[in-house]
């Protein structure tokens, strides 16, 4: 697709600011490979990522892959994320607490009352969004609300088999209802296609691959300074908008997906999931004694891919491009695309359970435009403001929001 054709297709999903972000300072021509359809990725001599989307300055060694001329420092520890440092096993353990601690406490007879007391104390810092609903509603009065929902552990319970993380019909109905009143997006580490398959509500925005694959229902232009992203068609022929800031990583991700599958196939219980712009290496069903083998194998593969990094989720290692893009950036992008980035009359609510959701909680805190709600049955440090215990409380919260809004409209 040539650049002119891309311009011609621009529609209200991308703002001028975002387009400026895509400008390549080397030649001041828009680097429009950020905004691609699902078509085969372009092979370019320069990585399709503007330098300000990379987490560190492009000085130092070059990428090992000939076509990528951007340079990157080849530090083995620190900024290249936990798996590249020696702390990856600790990170795997701390992001994936097992039940051993609880069982030990039960044996000592101190489990439930102490756990309850700890949770109650924690609630003072992260009050329940249900108990605080009136406060949230008061704050939302007269404001334009946007809703962002993580999928796994938020809309669906955590289960052993990632392919079976179905959400209930009641949850689907609650999401559909609340989306009638507020623009609603699902922000997930899963691929867009997979999370859409699970949720199945057309009227939503979907940001898969940790926000690296954004699609939404077609809308009228919401603000004069909003340009369009590419219009494309999903598998069922529906027209959708797309924003894919890591499109040029696709061949590399595919390559690494194959390598990770190959090198973990002998580890009992390990599985590798294709999340399109990211790869998940699951160790939920691996004996804890073998977690280090999983980490080591992933680490060994990534040694040759300095432009990929790993983040830690719930018993999962998530391999993704090093670009400075995460769920927080996706929220900012969507708010801007919806014309909700200006003014004091916006309240964004983000509900999520995972470490990767913290980026979004932080953004909302920083811009003071809303609040994060952490879904957790146990005390956890977070940048969220409120908490909910589990997906069933999330459903109750969404239902309350819809009822509250409809009661206001009925007045
Ligand atoms: O951003 P999310 O929607 O929360 O996705 C994060 C990861 O979620 C999935 O894995 C997690 O849920 C699985 C099903 O309950 C569970 O088996 C696994 O242990 C969890 O880590 C998904 O499979 C991953 O690809 C996502 O990255």
TrEMBL record:
InterPro entries, alphabetized: HAD-like_sf, HAD-SF_hydro_IIB, HAD_sf, OTSB-like, Trehalose_PPase
Name of protein: Trehalose 6-phosphate phosphatase
Reactions catalysed, as given in the entry: alpha,alpha-trehalose 6-phosphate + H2O = alpha,alpha-trehalose + phosphate
Transmembrane regions: none
UniProt entry keywords in alphabetical sequence: Hydrolase, Stress response
Annotated metabolic or biological route of this protein: Glycan biosynthesis; trehalose biosynthesis
GO molecular function, one term: trehalose-phosphatase activity
Similarity comment: Belongs to the trehalose phosphatase family.
Top-rank EC class of the record's enzyme: hydrolase
EC number of this enzyme: 3.1.3.12
Functional description taken from the UniProt entry: Removes the phosphate from trehalose 6-phosphate to produce free trehalose. Trehalose accumulation in plant may improve abiotic stress tolerance.
Protein's UniProt keywords contain Hydrolase: yes
Organism (species): Clitoria ternatea
BP terms from Gene Ontology: trehalose biosynthetic process
Xref: SUPFAM superfamilies: HAD-like (SSF56784)
N-terminal signal peptide: none
